[in-house]
Amino acid sequence: MSKSGRVSEFLKGKLTFEVCWWQRFSESLQMWKFVGERAKRVIATNTIASVVNLNHFQTTSTLSSSNYCSNRSHIPRLSSSLNSPRRSCSVMASKGATAPVTIESLNPKVLKCEYAVRGEIVSIAQKLQQDLQSKPGSQPFDEILFCNIGNPQALGQKPITFFREVLALCDNPTLLDKRETHSLFSADSIARALKILDQMPGRATGAYSHSQGIKGLRDTIAAGIQARDGFPADPEDIFLTDGASPGVHMMMQLLIRSENDGILCPIPQYPLYSASIALHGGTLVRYYLDEATGWGLEISELKKQLEAARQKGITVRALVVINPGNPTGQVLAEENQRQIVEFCKKEGLVLLADEVYQENIYAPDKKFNSFKKICRSMKYGEKDIPLVSFQSVSKGYHGECGKRGGYMEVTGFSREVREQFYKLASVNLCSNISGQILASLVMSPPKVGDQSYDAYINERNGILKSLARRAKTLEDAFNSLEGVTCNKAEGAMYLFPRIQLPKKAIKAAEQAKKAADAYYAIRLLNSTGVVVVPGTGFGQVPGTWHFRCTILPQEEKIPAIVSRLSNFHKKFMAEFRD
Amino acid sequence: MSKSGRVSEFLKGKLTFEVCWWQRFSESLQMWKFVGERAKRVIATNTIASVVNLNHFQTTSTLSSSNYCSNRSHIPRLSSSLNSPRRSCSVMASKGATAPVTIESLNPKVLKCEYAVRGEIVSIAQKLQQDLQSKPGSQPFDEILFCNIGNPQALGQKPITFFREVLALCDNPTLLDKRETHSLFSADSIARALKILDQMPGRATGAYSHSQGIKGLRDTIAAGIQARDGFPADPEDIFLTDGASPGVHMMMQLLIRSENDGILCPIPQYPLYSASIALHGGTLVRYYLDEATGWGLEISELKKQLEAARQKGITVRALVVINPGNPTGQVLAEENQRQIVEFCKKEGLVLLADEVYQENIYAPDKKFNSFKKICRSMKYGEKDIPLVSFQSVSKGYHGECGKRGGYMEVTGFSREVREQFYKLASVNLCSNISGQILASLVMSPPKVGDQSYDAYINERNGILKSLARRAKTLEDAFNSLEGVTCNKAEGAMYLFPRIQLPKKAIKAAEQAKKAADAYYAIRLLNSTGVVVVPGTGFGQVPGTWHFRCTILPQEEKIPAIVSRLSNFHKKFMAEFRD
């Protein structure tokens, strides 16, 4: 990326490189000062002097930061990194007291973190929805159409009956003794609940489990992975998590020591990754997916970005691959996956494989292959490559987002490193048991001959086929719009169309202090009630504009979305055409 | 604390002060070096030179750390903070590649974090349990008696029927249309489920909610807080969380910027606090509870430790109070709470109130008062004091640990600071919906006249009264042992007896490279199958020894625990008596 491109991107609502650098310099200065303080303290301790007052030292050594501090009102969302009460501009509770908590005194890593999927657009949508409820007819549309987040059940998708029956019975084991239960629940859900209850400490969904999750459920998940891949899986490698996000955070927390550590992430990316890297103080190393080849992942691009980061002194520790892609919807070809594995092996990178959309494949010529399967089929074993695969109950055909279930399969780390994973998992005790049970059910659904099998298959295929139709309809609609091109959603739950915005629109956005795609999305929302997420939230090649649109609204709503979007787009282009 | 006392504590299985210091010095050196690199980089950028190779600079400036690196095998669980591949001793994937992930190259904050509640003792217990299952009769006891963790349902406590009925119906709304449901479920659980379903997006427990939790459930919780305290509560102040732990982590993440930021924590403490502070890179500022006055919380001690920390250049940002206490079981008196509030107000500290045991009060003369109620009764409003109250569904009479539900009530922060709380909550999307529902049920259980009311009251009181009896029996048993003194459990779920260990036992522990209380606890476990947690995991006055024992095993097991413990203790004392 050119310097001008980078500056342009940062100016649009992000931090400038110079500010970043100045912040880091200021932090380092603090740190160096701290070394001096520590040294004085240790000298004092060793000479059995009591604690020395270091105030003078502290005040004189920080003068260089003060200009920055007084100017900071011009720099939104950035901490001055100054943490002594003596340097705060705020009113104190009493003399010598800690300064009140202000935005300036929060952890700068938190301030730096951004998470667009639940940003300004969502706030506007919530406000509009309240308006519609309190004053029907107050808006030019009768309902908000949420296409912003992968949350199928919020939009009317029904849960898989078998899964929910098992959950209800595990939560209420006394039902298992009652006659009426056999007319309300299927025989295999009863049998499965009995089996799961036997695996749980105290037969209780209300008990904390082993920190990695209930052993019996991990056995089931490992068997499911083995059946999927044709290669063995070890229940000791499974860590059950509250959705995929806590697993991603855990890996970032383990791998990132400072901003000298980098993580290679696709651009566009699901912003969990950039947020988590920012929160843990690391450096996001971008690699760009190639929109022209259907969001292709080119090894040459990986190499280029890796080398550039290394030249800057960054230790790149891991490569994130999202397959099927979010927000980009591509499904990687097996040969491409082999190249990625080879690249990680050669370069010593941990491969972080986000495989939460593994069930969501719509292109008939595409197939999901787990990276674990690819590695093992290349004869790479436990000692050859560190690999973490993330799976979630929130996606797939089941879409159980509210249950917060998921797992990560962790292979290729030494025993002592694994112990640190376990310790981190232990600090949070365990993931929720209903989510754990669901994760096991997703990896072991009803089989041919089970009473629930036919209903399960109908429910599953009904959802997946409908999603494929919705994806196609929306893709065609986008491609029919002036200046819009949209790659196929081969998998996952999203389309990520590119919009060629007229210069006049970009200028209007600048005047409104918005990124151009955010300006478009806010106008779309206010005119039509259709909620999409601007491309800036996911990252994109500077100067290009996109938005993410889910394929999740119920099928009968799709025509309304298409017509509202098309009418809006025509008017927008007419208003701003150069 | 005297220097000799501190050294003695650290030598017992912890890090020495010198090692800590050396680690920090080494980190600071790295950081300072980094400043130099950055400066070079910026100069290079500004002169439009391409990126310079800094290898030479990097290699020469780190020689001072190498001795430490080569010695590290003697220092368990400590990172060398060396993050360049050139400095690693491990084999590389290929020339120029990132070094493999080793214990030395993990985030040193993770390595520093300790969490004793799930430490060595638990591993031994799990091993023994497997032995008992595979070879019955192989141990001198027939079952493991878990007294180590607050996990009541794992030990046979039954969930509250009403709560579970509501959960099952919310998860399976189709049941609400069926005739059989009315003979299986109570009328008020059906009514409550219908009400909750109406509050949820898509009427679905499988949908992500608002990042703070479902608004209708937060309304219910706020009403419950208001009924408890007699002062208003605002649903916008409620953040629903997966148990209390993520809320604590979130506050630490927000408040801690560097090791210059400190958090005042009780000693003994629940190790979530020390672990979370370590993970976020802050400094634990200890204040000691006074065992002689029933684990009294003295303001003079708070002042002393706060001043000492400030003299060292630490900005103390918050005070943690656990009430009722964990592991100490004391219930704070109202007057004491007022003093604590006054102290926080005067010193500008955020008050982090761990109130997860608010329903667990056993002393007839004691009453739980929330800190929010205390603040408001002192006429301190929103602008006077920043206060966070943590609540969990895992504790109380319900003990729904596996559901991972809870909330924090956040008051006294500015709007822009609150927006950062919201952003952090958003990155993890939302807490699990069953946990959210449970949190609302806990704060709004059945009322007089509801069909479930009598059963609910019987279940609740039965559990609480039994816990009080178990606490008394165990307390008396401990106090009858030679050299053991045990304060009353006025509340919570634990006893924390002090053991006067003979010098010979302490010496034997040293030889076994264990803390003396860990040595005692491991011997106890291996001889009797009774699992307790050594006091070192919670912190204690140096030179004193304790263990934490829960009061949670079912009442019929208590006599066995008492007799096994007493017999073991007599033999232990006979073996080691000075």
Please characterize this protein's 3D structure.
The structure is a homodimer of 578-residue chains. With 578 residues, chain A is α/β, with parallel strands linked by helices. Chain A has three domains: 110 residues, no CATH class; 148 residues, Aspartate Aminotransferase, domain 1, CATH 3.90.1150.10; 235 residues, 3-Layer(aba) Sandwich (Aspartate Aminotransferase, domain 2). In chain A, 45% of the residues lie in helices and 10% in strands. Chain A has 21 helices and 14 strands. The longest helix of chain A is centred in the first third of the chain and has 30 residues. The interface between A and B is large, with 143 and 143 residues.
List keywords for this structure.
3 domains; 578 residues; globular; three-stranded antiparallel sheet; 14 strands; seven-stranded mixed sheet; alpha/beta; 21 helices; homodimer; Aspartate Aminotransferase, domain 1; Aspartate Aminotransferase, domain 2; 45% helix
Short description:
The structure is a homodimer of 578-residue chains. The first copy, chain A, is α/β, with parallel strands linked by helices and 578 residues long. The first copy, chain A, folds into 3 domains: 3-112, no CATH class; 116-155 and 469-576, Aspartate Aminotransferase, domain 1 (Alpha-Beta Complex); 208-442, Type I PLP-dependent aspartate aminotransferase-like (Major domain) (Aspartate Aminotransferase, domain 2, 3-Layer(aba) Sandwich).
